[in-house]
Amino acid sequence: MRTRKNHAFYRDTWAEVNLNAIEQNVTRIKQGLPEGAGFMAVVKANAYGHGAVDVAKTALSAGAACLGVAILDEALALRHAGVEAPILVLGYVRPEDASLAAKYNVTLTVFQHEWIEEAAVQISERTGPVKCHVKVDTGMGRIGLRTDGEWEALASAVEKYSSLFQLEGIYTHFATADEIDDAYVREQHRKFEHFLTAFKKRTGLGNPVVHSANSATALRYREYAHTLVRVGISMYGLVPSEEIAGEITVPLEQAFSLHSRITHVKQLNRGEAVSYGATYRASDEGEWIGTIPIGYADGWIRANASGGEVLINGERAPIVGRICMDQMMIRLPEEVARGTRVTLIGQQGKEVISADEVARRLDTINYEIPCMISYRVPRAIYRDGHLIHLHNEVF
Ligand code: PMH
C-alpha cells in the first residue's frame, strides 16, 4: 500500500502546480528587497494548497533562507521529507511538544512567560535547547506579547533556563499591509521598533533575526524588510489584495491551476432539468450538457454555481444546476467528446480564469482558493513542462 500511495490517480480531476512560476516569483520578489534581507518561504497549510515539500525545496533552491509553517506537524512533515533548512512555527505549539521541536531543530514562536516555565520541564539538556523567536502583538490582536511587563517576564523566564531556550529573533505581523491607507501599518511598526530596542538591550544579541513583512509589506514597504521577509501569497503568484493590485510592480505568475475532464455528454429537451432541486431547466431545445467529476467534497463549493464558468476548448462555459458532492454540470456550446479537458482555474488559449476571479465569485480572498481545494484532488507537480511528482492523498 505504502509504495503505491501518492504515485498515481484514477480520476479525471487534478490540480497542477508549476514550480517554475514559484521559482520565478521568489527570484523576482527577492530582487526587490534591500541588500541582505533574507526570504522566508511561508509554506503553511500544505503551501497554501500547492504541496509543501515541493514548494519548500523549490523556494530554497531559488534563494529562500528558511521556511515558515503554522503548526509543529507541518514542520515535522518537512523534516521527514529531508528538508534541513531552518523552519519557524508561526503559531502556538503546546509546551509539552517543545522537546520534539528541539529534537528536530524546529524554531518556535514564544510570547508567554508561563509557557517557558511549562516547556522547560519538557526539554532536557539531552534534546538540546529549542530555538525561539519572540512574537510581539503590535496590533494584529492574534498572538504575541503586548506590554513591556509581558516582555520583561518572558525575558526573565528565558534567562532562568538559558541552557534550554535559545532566543534568536523577534517578529510581528501587520494587519493592514494590503490596504492603501498606511496609518495602521506605521503605528504597528512604531510599536515594533520599541520592542526591538528593548529586545536588543535585554538580550545583548548583536544580530538577531528580525521580521515583520508579509507579501504586501515586502512588496510595498521596502523599509520594513529588516533581516527577513515572510512571503506566502505572492510566492504563489497572487496579489495580497485587489485594493493594492495596481501598486504591485513585481510581475507575478500564478502557480496553481485546476482541471477536469468531461465524463458524460447529453442533449436536453427544452424544460428538462439538471441536478438537485431541478433548479436549472434547459431553455433551448437540444441544449448540450456536460458532466464533470468535481464537487463540493473536492473543495469546489456550491457557491461556485452562482455565475461560475469554466474553460473548455478555449471558451467559457457556465456551470448549471447545483454542484453535487462529487460532480457538476456545465452547458456546452456544442457537442464535445468525452474526455475533453475542462479548466476551472487557469488558462486555455487566450482565456484565463484566475484564482482572483474565483475569489470574487465566492466573495472571498484569493488565499482561500487553492487552500480550499481538498485532499481529494491530486496535485500534479510540474517543472520545465515535465510532471515530476504526483501527490494523491486518497490512494
Ligand atoms: N507571517 C505570518 C505570521 C502569517 O500568518 C502569514 C500568512 C504570513 C507571514 C504570509 O503572509 P502572505 O501570505 O500575505 O505573504 N497568514 C495568513 C493567515 O493567517 N490568514 O491568511 C494569511
Explain what this protein looks like in three dimensions.
With 395 residues, the chain is an alpha/beta fold. It folds into two domains: 32-236, TIM Barrel (Alpha-Beta Barrel), CATH 3.20.20.10; 256-391, Lyase, Ornithine Decarboxylase, Chain A, domain 1 (Beta Barrel), CATH 2.40.37. The chain contains eleven helices and 21 strands. The protein has helices spanning 19-31, 44-48, 52-61, 72-80, 98-103, 113-122, 148-160, 183-203, 215-220, 355-361, 368-372, and strands at residues 13-18, 38-42, 66-69, 87-89, 106-110, 130-135, 165-171, 209-213, 228-231, 256-261, 264-268, 273-274, 280-281, 287-292, 309-312, 315-320, 328-332, 341-348, 351-353, 379-383, 386-391. Helix 6 (113-122) runs parallel beside helix 7 (148-160). It is elongated, with a radius of gyration of 24 Å. The chain starts with 12 loop residues before the first strand and ends with a strand. The chain binds ligand PMH. The site of ligand PMH has 13 residues, from helix 9 and strand 9. Ligand PMH is lined by residues 42, 68, 90, 173, 214-216, 230-233, 240, 367.
Mean pLDDT: 96
Q: Could you tell me which ligands this complex binds, including any ions or cofactors?
A: ligand PMH
| Main sheet overview | 11 strands, mixed
Low-confidence stretches: none
CATH superfamily of the largest domain: Alanine racemase
Distance, first to last CA: 8 Å
Q: What percentage of residues falls in helices of 4 or more residues?
A: 25-40%
Overall number of strands: 21
- Tell me the count of domains: 2
Shape: elongated
Which CATH C-level class of the largest domain is it? Alpha Beta
Number of helices: 11
Task: Please name the CATH topology of the largest domain.
Answer: TIM Barrel
Over all CA atoms, what is the radius of gyration?
A: 24 Å
CATH architecture assignment name of the largest domain: Alpha-Beta Barrel
Strand content: 25-35%
Structural class: alpha/beta
